Write the structure tokens for this entry.
Amino acid sequence: MTDQAAGAPPSAGPPAGCPAHPDAVALSGLPFQQTPARLYQDMRRRHGPVAPVLLDGGIPAWLVLGYRELHYVTTNDELFARDSRRWNAWDSIPPDWPLMPFVGYQPSVLFAEGAEHQRRAGAISDALVEVDQFELRRHCEHVADDLINAFAGRGQADLMADFAHPLPLLAAIWMCGLPESETSDMVKDLTTSLDAAEGEDPVAAYLRVQARIQGLLDSKRAAPGPDVTSRMLAHQAGLADEEIVQDLISVIAAAQQPTANWIGNALRLMLTDDRFAVTMSGGRGSAGQALNEVLWEDTPTQNFIGRWATRDTQLGGRHIKEGDCVVLGLAAANTDPEVRPDALGGVAGNSAHVSFSHGEHRCPYPAPELAEVIASTAVEVLLDRLPDVSLSGAPEELAWRPSVWMRGLDALPVRFTSAYVV
């Protein structure tokens, strides 16, 4: 979910004919950006494990805060389904609604259900499982070195723009087999389509991405290679071109923003927390420890929209009506005191978080493993190349992006001893 999509403030109340809970919380504002954990704790105390919320424009929905409740929703696809055409609020939503790119039905794996979802998600998993993780790590080391070489002589950098954002996108494009000659334009258009700046046209950029992916399919059909695209074309599921195009874009988009923010949030933790400070011998705390802690405490995907109730039901003491929208509160569930009474104490080595969601529609295997290879390589190479890297300012000066959906920094300015590259 991009920052642009979450930028419009909600109206004072819901549209006519679209009932909302009288105590609903607007899903926007500074508390979601600066202190989300505290806000989710307050919402849980006031509303229990399922809270009434207002999306952009005052559109009502339910936010699942409880860990057990989120597991229930994500493991009951027949009751809480992904096809957004079931939504009972469509009559109240304008065509230019900011969240339309993320809830408007598309013929992609993201909205597929049942056997159709299994067919398409299975093809993605089978294509990804063949990625050689050692080769991926070597490629990420090469990309990380190239990115660092570009700013190493300056003695300062913005690790978000210069490093964390481009690296996972370059890795994802490489896994898909895009020729290096087309990488630069693809990165630019994908970045614009996922997170457009003012004056940029995300729709036009997305159409160019689609055209490039279709061109990639045409070239791989003529000359297959050891890449995700070729394997999806040859898969026994018999995917149509338009299905592969949509699903490859979903794979690349899912790899870019969340992994970039995972890298950035882990680097922030390691640069601001004394547990990860440089020791007398020059070493730091484990990058793996920081990456795992971030998934529990500062997960990149904070909230995910959504699921839609297929019939009237009960959830967390709430009456959910047929067609109601349910937002998955991944960050809130990870800090649910019902399952994590010890707060930070129990996260080391614990992977029971829901940062990659859960159930049939979770990130397809082995995508989380590949994301971890990308993120861990990025952090380790950076700290190896720039061992004295430190924040340029005070930790409290770091600003989070204005989004309730993704948790990531606007910028991560650092300084270090200049290292000229020959």
Remarks:
- The chain has one domain: 4-415.
- Residues 90 and 314 are 22 Å apart (CA to CA).
- The two ends are 40 Å apart (CA to CA).
